[in-house]
Design goal:
Layout (H helix, E strand, L loop, with lengths): L1 E4 L2 E4 L9 E4 L5 E7 L2 E6 L3 E5 L4 E6 L3 H8 L5 E5 L2 E5 L3 E6 L5 E7 L7 E8 L2 E5 L11 E5 L2 E2 L12 H9 L9
Antiparallel strand pairs: 1-2, 2-3, 4-5, 5-6, 6-7, 8-9, 9-10, 10-11, 12-13, 13-14, 14-15
Length: 183
């Protein structure tokens, strides 16, 4: 179980409590740490996102424009697990989803609508889907909520575009649902 202690992310053995590993970045401190399948996904104060297993950094990504909003916001709500090994990273201007199992590969992005921003700390989970707040001055409150899952934004009638796990794709085909509407 990873934890932050000052400027260090450390893994802890749940049986003995001793830290079997530690990871630090010189001149930076961890803002949020999230356990993910034997790894620690960490958001750092400079907007760098790292995934470490304690021996190596398996992958890292830089959040765009983090210097503008991260110091005042902190990390509340930025990291959102979506299931199926997918982690959403919510920033005011966009949501990006990374697959933690395959080296942090980018799965999809969702930009905020024009004139709107996502509020990472103002989200809740309804069943398996997080509902994100996207305040807009010209939209009813129902249009200011965005539901997500590991495939992206949840909308009525949505079908995956080939990014679903193979078992889900074949189940949808067997049910008579095409992957994409005819042209």
């Amino acid at each position: 179980m990873p934890r932050t202690r000052g400027a260090v992310v450390a893994g802890y053995d749940t049986r003995g409590g001793a830290p079997p590993w530690r990871y630090a970045r010189v001149g930076h401190r961890p803002v949020v740490v999230l356990p993910a399948r034997g790894e620690a996904v960490t958001l750092w104060d400079d907007g760098l996102l790292t995934a470490t297993d304690g021996r190596t950094v398996r992958w890292h990504r830089a959040l765009p424009d983090a210097a503008e909003w991260l110091p005042a916001h902190g990390g509340a709500g930025v990291l959102r697990p979506l299931g199926h090994g997918v982690l959403a990273v919510v920033t005011p201007r966009r949501v990006a989803a990374y697959r933690t199992a395959d080296g942090g590969g980018l799965r999809w992005t969702l930009p905020a609508r024009d004139g709107c921003v996502f509020r990472p700390g103002a989200a809740l989970r309804r069943g398996p889907a997080p509902l994100l707040s996207q305040p807009c001055a010209d939209t009813a409150w129902t249009g200011q909520l965005v539901a997500l899952d590991h495939l992206g934004r949840i909308t009525p009638g949505r079908t995956p575009l080939g990014s679903a796990p193979p078992a889900l794709r074949s189940a949808r085909r067997d049910a008579g649902n095409p992957l994409a509407p005819p042209r």
